[in-house]
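User: Hi! I have a protein structure encoded as tokens and I'd like to know what sequence might fold into it. I'm fairly new to this, so please keep things simple.
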């Protein structure tokens, strides 16, 4: 049996390297070792744990150029974006770690002579299962709080990006006590085996369908879950919006990371009154975007990660055109690893590009006539990760009614500062980031005592 997981450059299909696939029979043993390591790790003070992680941050920083190159080659995004991802991870370790430290401090309550402590103890072994689109950041965002809170981690990176995961893990392993962070390489089978193993918490970032399967498989042990799933974010442009700014954002947010971003604007609803002007501005901005190789200085949009994703994106574009959408931009006959920046208008709710996650560089525009209509249509999706609204007078009415975990008004949405990265409805639950989010990596324990 082939026991190597090969990693290919998504643009050139060149073999970049390989890792050993973890035998599913080994996973219980890995988790057992993790449990033993965790017992000692949790006994260290938070400051001691942070000092280990700080050293890893220094190595990440020192090696950022080389790591960014590998990340680009393996995932396809351009070198600047990859560098931003690596340095972002390196630099936020201490900030994040201190946030976690504050969030998990024991709280003491004193009432009628009865003292109550609210402790935030480690949960145990945390499984981290990640996607490929931000191959370092998506794992890092949960590995850091998990470790600072005193858990050990078994990490299952995406099968698309094992090489950058291997480097990341080895850097942390070079500074951490043995087995505090371990890695499992493979795909669905390894993910399933990890979920069914004796882990205490599963933090999963990925698609909705896999999230549902994980929830089912985790139910036996009633394992704790943090699920950061897909999105189908609406962008609503009201009749009194700054059209130029809204169009610029629509394009940037639809094309970022080649559209392979969970909070990308996937459904754009523009007021009929300004539709034509908006579309023209969108086309103007979209024409500035170029597909290309990771190491080309003009590249905005890299290759799509694999053939499966390209097939989905092409199918959505074709379905929209066949059902009557207007196709303004993007060569649909291109047959290599890229999808050209695409602009569609006159999109209808029954088209795939408005119903399912497209995850590609597509600006899909539809018009609306009333506020009530657009709220209803925007909320018709099972997903509710992010949403954005551009406009003035009615912005707050729409904001109050929209289903979303993160909402941007006249700008993008996302977690800024000490707020969580959070989805609503079927975009997940059990968020991370913020004091509440950090505490989800802990088991609260309430200890009540009298003084005698
Ligand atoms: P995916 O769900 O196909 O895979 C994610 C991970 O799960 C991979 O490591 C994969 O090997 C593993 N896996 C697959 N089947 C499994 C199973 N049955 N049990 C356990 N693990 C299993 O997702 P993907 O294609 O890697 O990533 C794209 C998806 O991730 C999109 O839906 C995107 O919206 C979502 N995403 C969400 C966020 C967020 O913060 N909400 C961030 C990034 C990506």
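Assistant: Happy to help. Inverse folding works backwards from shape to sequence: for each of the 452 positions I chose a residue that suits the local structure. Here it is:
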């Amino acid at each position: 049996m082939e026991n190597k997981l090969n990693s290919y450059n998504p643009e050139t299909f060149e073999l970049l390297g390989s890792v050993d696939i973890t035998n599913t029979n080994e996973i219980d043993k890995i988790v057992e070792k993790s449990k033993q390591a965790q017992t000692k790790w949790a006994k260290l003070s938070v400051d001691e744990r942070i000092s280990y992680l700080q050293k890893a941050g220094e190595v990440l920083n020192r090696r950022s150029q080389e790591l960014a190159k590998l990340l680009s080659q393996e995932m396809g995004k351009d070198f600047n974006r990859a560098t931003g991802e690596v340095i972002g991870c390196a630099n936020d370790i201490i900030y994040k770690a201190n946030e976690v430290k504050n969030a998990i401090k024991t709280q003491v309550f004193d009432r009628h002579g009865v003292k109550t402590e609210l402790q935030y103890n480690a949960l145990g072994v945390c499984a981290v299962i990640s996607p490929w689109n931000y191959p370092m950041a998506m794992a890092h965002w949960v590995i850091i709080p998990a470790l600072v809170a005193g858990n050990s981690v078994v990490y299952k990176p995406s099968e698309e990006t094992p090489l950058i995961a291997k480097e990341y893990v080895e850097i942390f392993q070079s500074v951490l006590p043995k087995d505090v962070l371990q890695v499992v390489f493979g795909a669905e089978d390894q993910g399933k085996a990890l979920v069914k193993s004796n882990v205490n918490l599963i933090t999963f970032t990925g698609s909705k369908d896999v999230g549902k399967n994980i929830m089912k498989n985790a139910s036996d042990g009633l394992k704790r879950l943090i699920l950061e799933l897909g999105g189908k974010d609406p962008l609503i442009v009201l009749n009194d919006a700054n059209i130029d700014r809204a169009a610029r954002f629509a394009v940037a947010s639809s094309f970022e990371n080649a559209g392979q971003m969970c909070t990308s604007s996937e459904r754009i609803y523009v007021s009929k009154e300004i539709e034509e002007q908006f579309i023209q501005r969108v086309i103007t901005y979209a024409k500035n975007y170029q597909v290309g190789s990771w190491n080309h200085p003009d590249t905005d949009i890299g290759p799509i990660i694999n053939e499966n994703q390209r097939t989905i994106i092409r199918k959505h574009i074709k379905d929209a055109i066949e059902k009557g959408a207007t196709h303004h931009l993007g060569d649909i006959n291109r047959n290599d690893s890229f999808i050209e920046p695409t602009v569609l208008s006159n999109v209808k709710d029954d088209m795939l590009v408005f119903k399912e996650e497209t995850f590609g560089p597509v600006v899909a525009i539809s018009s609306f006539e009333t506020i009530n209509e657009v709220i209803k249509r925007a909320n018709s999706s099972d997903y509710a990760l992010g949403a954005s609204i551009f406009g003035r007078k009615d912005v707050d009415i729409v904001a109050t009614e929209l289903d979303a975990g993160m909402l941007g008004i006249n700008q993008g949405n996302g977690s800024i500062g000490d707020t969580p990265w959070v989805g609503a409805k079927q975009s997940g639950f059990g968020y991370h980031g913020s004091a509440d989010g950090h505490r989800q990596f802990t088991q609260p324990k309430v200890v009540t005592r009298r003084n005698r």
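A useful reference point when you look it over: Residues 79-103 form the longest helix (25 residues). Feel free to ask if any position seems puzzling.
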